[in-house]
Specification:
The protein is of the alpha/beta class. The protein contains 27 helices and 18 strands.
Length: 680
Amino acid sequence: MTAVLDAGQPRPGATLRSPAMPQPEVEQAPTGQVPATDDENHTAAALRRVVAALPGGGEGRPGQIEMAEAVAAAVMAGRHLVVRAGTGTGKTLGYLVPAILSGRRVVVATATRALQDQLANKDLPFLDEHLDHPFDWAVLKGRSNYLCAQRLAELAAAGGATDEAAPAGGEQLGLDQIDGFAERADAVELARLSEWARTTFTGDRADLDQEPSEAAWAAVSTTARDCPGAHRCPRGDDCFAEAARARAAEADVVIVNQHLYGLDLASDGAILPDHDVAIIDEAHQVDDIVSATAGVELSAGRFAHLARTLRGILADAGDTITRIGDAGGLLTDALVSHRDQRLVAPLPDDLADTLVRLRSRVEEALAALRSIPDDATDDATARAVRARQAASSLLDDIDAVTRPGSDHVLFVSGPERVPVLRLAPLDVAPLLQRQLWSRRPAVLTSATIAPGFGGRLGLPAGSDSLLDVGSPFDYQANGLIYCAAGLPRPTDPRWAEAAIGELAALVEAAGGRTLALFTSYRAMDRAVVTLRERLPYPLLAQRDLPKPALVERFAGDPETCLFATMSFWQGIDVPGPSLSLVSIDRLPFPRPDDPLLQARREHVGARAFEAIDVPRAATLLAQGAGRLIRTATDRGAVAVLDSRLATARYGPKIVATLPRMRRTKDRAEIERFLRDLRGA
């Protein structure tokens, strides 16, 4: 790694976009052969050298080179670029190499913290060794991912984080005098976390040897809603989260997750360092993630969190703490009857009255907290400042949901026992236009990007065009997509039984080896009950074991079948002969009664189905189908048991998002294909 230059200063060779430069444009899909620029040639040559250094010697991937050259050109010209890069393309190196070579400060937003860690611990160290272009990188996560030095000090002062042999149970250690978080945690685990804190450089939860319990981690960390900031914290100079922000401010490449990037957009850039380029990986999720991070959530858990924070601070105000703790139950009772409903002003009387009562209780707690001086630097004062921060944040969110604006949607979602009141933007495009598209070039990439993707996000003119670099896998030779066009439509009462019969025949032809994906638990349970009696192969269901154990069992026994719902449509990787068939019961259209999507459909008008429902179904179907072929040697079939894929007018738009396998509507053809795979 190179020595880091001062934050905000251009690196050697950097070409920073000035405010006077024109607004970024969207990269158009290529219409013909265009001579490569020197930058593109340099990028391609560097990428080839890097790939050749991969373990075992890498292989050339034309799509990866095409992507890297397009990213280099877009960054240099200040244009936006949307890239669909199929499985096996190597898109991570396809965007990292040109981004690093550009000499500009880049933020890469991934879909999950796990992908963050892969970039930081594997991909970027590899490039640092082999790219022959000095650069520095940093990882930045949300505040709750880091140990809090102040919380640790408070535990140590109470004797709860220093004695390895201490018994469990907060009251035996006096931890109930700090707050309700430490009281719920195991003292031995707290002691281990305290010992780790003495040696860790990052304080990052991901660096622990084993995952801590939620109770223990809550006792030694804080959240953005609670933290008063380093300047008001006695141990702000020792803060792991602030140290991570400082490293990020000086790095050439900063890795974050999309949730943190969304929070930064919603806060007008208050979280992340200034940067010249944004790269959004797994970009098909950006709409939902930005919508969630730009909104507000109010649940019983928020009040329970505040009540635990108040423990040990308001020692003489037990009634106040009890009233805050009880407030969550009042909110739950008020939300249950409105679950899965959209709410508009004026709010229903029962909910409006409850919000007034809740606000009064939080104000009461805040008034008590304000009586504690905040000009001292002791631990008690620090706890009080933290509690005031949490209470103020809760008040702001109560006010937001009480008076929703016309550009937001207020609705209730979640299970009956823990309903959540949510406020979300009606359309994320204005926020993205204001905070991202107009400020810096952005590269958005995913294996599954549906037509019209850019337009839905408010990208400037030309946003419907995207660069599709394909996949190095030979889908035509190794894969087959079958649509059961002869089945009744899923709205027909005969469909359920007919679809189960179709699935049974296909599983028999495949010799097990099937990942059967369902759009509802009801459909999955019905198929499991019926087919466990009919099929001679082991059949695992999603409810049987935790997800990692299910995937391990499925991958380890080639004849086993796994039946699962939506959470298995993404992130499942089972290469090899254990998976020869992915079946999908029906097109995964979103629920018609989803409150947020209902409002967005009304906002869009007559073209709502084409603009909202079809792209979502296409993206999720492609994610499900993508579970099949994960390596160059995998072979198999995808079976869609929904005839609308072949018969509906929107079918071609959905098919266009799927891997480019051969297609058939002939069941005999897919059965022959599956039998040939297992040598039957």
